[in-house]
Specification:
The complex is a heterodimer of chains A (383) and B (260).
Chain A lengths: L6 H28 L4 H9 L18 H14 L1 H20 L2 H13 L4 E4 L15 E5 L2 E12 L6 E7 L9 E7 L5 E3 L13 E12 L3 E2 L5 H37 L1 E2 L2 E2 L4 H30 L5 H31 L5 H11 L6 H15 L3
Parallel strand pairs in A: 1-4
Antiparallel strand pairs in A: 2-3, 3-7, 4-5, 5-8, 6-7, 9-10
Chain B lengths: L1 E5 L2 E3 L6 E2 L4 E2 L6 E3 L1 H17 L2 E7 L5 H9 L4 E5 L9 H15 L4 E5 L10 H9 L3 E11 L4 E7 L2 E7 L3 E5 L11 H9 L3 E3 L39 H12 L5
Parallel strand pairs in B: 1-6, 1-8, 6-7, 7-13, 8-12, 9-12
Antiparallel strand pairs in B: 2-5, 3-4, 9-10, 10-11
Classes of the chains: A alpha+beta (383), B alpha/beta (260).
Chain lengths: 383, 260
């Protein structure tokens, strides 16, 4: 389908496609097997200005739209959502500064993220706080000109690889969600360390670690926005980033469909290619149809967000739910179409299916997304 | 450092066909790409510029549509581009091409280093690089696989040989041709692509470069292509299986029809 991209958007697609075909696809199996962070690929992406896409022009970025980022992530997702996640997590980590940070914080951090000379990470989740952000136990206590952070973040993407971390901590615990604030912590800050890399089912090219704060002292101007606004910043950050996760799902599903359809044309049983059998055709037809619906919803949601930045929660959650559920289904069906070959680690189908699962879990589980959509509906029908 | 990189637009080798009538490459409908060796030459030039400062000028002789590879070169870091294009250049062999490029480069101004790909994948002659150096009267080195160091005065590099490599040092001006081992060409950048879209590609005609009409195009080309033909396909091959006695037996059976 023609989605009427602009010339500049087509440039983004072309660059991301070249990186995916020439750099990511040839390396993805090895990165997956070795749990290896794709530093060289990310450096190539930095050279190609991809990290600059979401950063405003005033800070050395490209000032790209939500749709621009979606297009880039979709192409990367076609190759490997592990690499795509490492890339996307740097944007996620910097959104809180873009959304709520002071001019000084923006000038300090955004230019290095735009060039890709530094990576960012976003630290929200804890052992007892994920979907329920109010369960956060990491604290930040003001002490003169400094904040003192204590606590442990869990499953943080780009942990140990990023240089800039945006962290949610409780500044006034008794105020609940209104007692949360966000801070910038830098690699090398005294009292801050990262745990060992987690071993994961999928997206193994991305790094996931704990972030540990033990009397970690940071200057007071590392507070992002005003004290007590952390939770609002988190919600706005996730609203902005979710279409990117949907895009990874669209790309992943496209990669799985491409593989399954190519295989079905080559594989012969009963004297003819299995794509000639209606049972297989119907599976491929459903995969292709649902994929196109997911892509169209994701693009439409991104365009809506670009036009109406104050009204993004519902569409952002809708595209995340639909595209990532589609990615799970399409990758599962791709393994089915490929039969025994699909199940073997020698072929990429099983990796795609393993990878797909995280899309339904991270950046807000798909159950939480449905809560968001439901709550928005509840508000809409009150009027 | 002023660096010139010579680039040729070639048909994508994966799709190439011969026109049986004229025995020339059938270019219609075949996608054109930047000669792969030239991509490595460009990367060598751009990374040298990033290390030592200076500017990279890309130059191509070809029809107007060769502008596409020059824009691609700008998207990958070249600063400016020259297209040497004139109907009278048509039919040039490597002799006429090296003359034409030498005239164009002389008119383009001063330079320190010229980098070419080892050869183009359509003609495969590997003659234009050395020919250009001879025309310009400057030293050259072919098949460079690595630039070890470079500054304003000297450049040290490795020349690929059959049995290893030579380490050479040179001053400027110099022309080098490069092999694919020298680097991994970069992906174009977003800013580069935008710059390339807007860039003005300067077109130089035969008159602009004061070319002698007798030395360019078909009249200036001593090479005559008498015949171009696809090689006969190799005969069918068979792989024999089984233990050695069985294989010998099968071989004898296969050879029997040819016994007089």
């Amino acid at each position: 389908m023609d989605h009427f991209l602009t010339e500049e958007q087509q440039m983004i697609v072309d660059i991301a496609r070249q990186i995916t075909d020439e750099r990511i696809i040839p390396q993805r199996a090895e990165l997956d097997e070795k749990h290896e962070f794709p530093r060289a690929i990310l450096e190539e992406m930095a050279q190609a200005d991809m990290f600059a896409i979401p950063i405003p022009e005033a800070y050395g970025g490209f000032g790209g739209s939500c749709l621009d980022i979606v297009l880039a992530l979709e192409e990367l997702g076609r190759g490997c959502i592990g690499v795509g996640t490492a890339f996307a997590a740097s944007s996620l980590g910097i959104y809180p500064i873009m959304i709520s940070g002071s001019e000084e914080l923006k000038q300090t951090y955004l230019p290095d993220i735009a060039t890709g000379s530094k990576f960012a990470a976003f630290g929200l989740t804890e052992a007892n706080a994920g979907s329920d952000a109010s369960g956060i136990q990491t604290t930040a206590i003001q002490d003169g000109d400094e904040w003192v952070l204590n606590g442990t973040k869990q499953w943080i993407t780009n942990g140990g690889e990023a240089q800039v971390y945006t962290i949610v901590a409780m500044t006034d615990k008794h105020k609940g969600a209104r007692g949360a604030s966000m801070f910038v912590v830098e690699e090398g800050d005294a009292g801050f360390s990262c745990g060992p890399k987690e071993i994961k089912m999928g997206i193994r090219a991305s790094s996931t670690t704990e972030l540990i704060f033990k009397d970690c002292r940071i200057p007071k101007d590392r507070l992002i926005g005003r004290r007590g606004t952390g939770f609002i910043t988190v919600m706005k950050t996730l609203d902005s980033s979710r279409p990117g996760i949907a895009a990874l799902g669209v790309g992943l599903a496209q990669g799985a469909l491409d593989m399954a359809a190519t295989y079905a044309k080559q594989r012969e049983q009963f004297g003819r290619p299995i794509i000639g059998f209606q049972a297989v055709q119907h599976m491929l037809a459903d995969m292709a149809t649902e994929l196109e619906a997911a892509r169209t919803l994701t693009y439409a949601a991104a365009r809506h967000i670009d036009a109406h930045p104050r009204d993004m929660s519902k569409v952002s959650s809708m595209c995340k739910v639909f595209a990532t559920d589609t990615a799970m289904k399409v990758t599962t069906d791709a393994v089915q179409v490929m039969g025994g070959y699909g199940y073997m680690c020698e072929y990429p189908a099983e990796k795609m299916m393993r990878d797909a699962k995280i899309l339904q879990i991270y950046e807000g589980t798909n159950q939480v997304q449905r809560n968001v959509i439901g709550q928005e509906l509840n508000k809409e029908y009150n009027r | 450092m002023k660096i010139i990189v010579c680039i040729k637009q070639v048909p994508d080798a994966r799709e190439v066909r011969l026109d049986p009538e004229t025995n020339t490459l059938a270019r219609e409908g075949v996608e054109s790409i930047m000669n792969p060796y030239d991509q490595h030459a460009l990367e060598a030039g751009v990374s040298l510029k990033e290390r030592c400062g200076g500017e990279v000028t890309v130059i191509s002789m070809g029809p107007p549509q060769a502008e596409a590879v020059l824009r691609q070169a700008i998207s990958c870091g070249a600063d400016q581009a020259l297209l040497v294009s004139d109907r009278s250049f048509a039919g040039a062999d490597t002799w006429a091409t090296s003359y034409t490029l030498a005239q164009a480069i002389t008119h383009a101004g001063e330079f320190d280093l010229i980098i070419c790909g080892k050869q183009a994948i359509d003609g495969d002659t590997a003659q234009v690089g050395p020919g250009l150096a001879m025309r310009l009267g400057i030293p050259y080195a072919t098949c460079i696989q690595k630039i070890r160091s470079a500054d304003e005065e000297t450049i040290v590099f490795e020349r690929m040989m059959d049995d290893g490599y030579d380490v050479l040092q040179s001053g400027y001006p110099l022309l080098m041709t490069v092999v694919k081992d020298i680097n991994e060409p970069r992906v174009p950048s977003l800013r580069g692509k935008m710059k390339a879209k807007k860039a003005e590609i300067k077109i130089l005609s035969a008159e602009d470069i004061e070319a002698d009409p007798a030395c360019i195009g078909l009249p200036g080309s001593p090479t005559q292509v008498v015949k171009v033909f696809p090689p006969e396909p190799r005969g069918a091959r068979a792989i024999l299986t089984g233990d050695i006695d069985e294989q010998v037996e099968q071989l004898v059976e296969k050879l029997k029809p040819y016994l007089v």
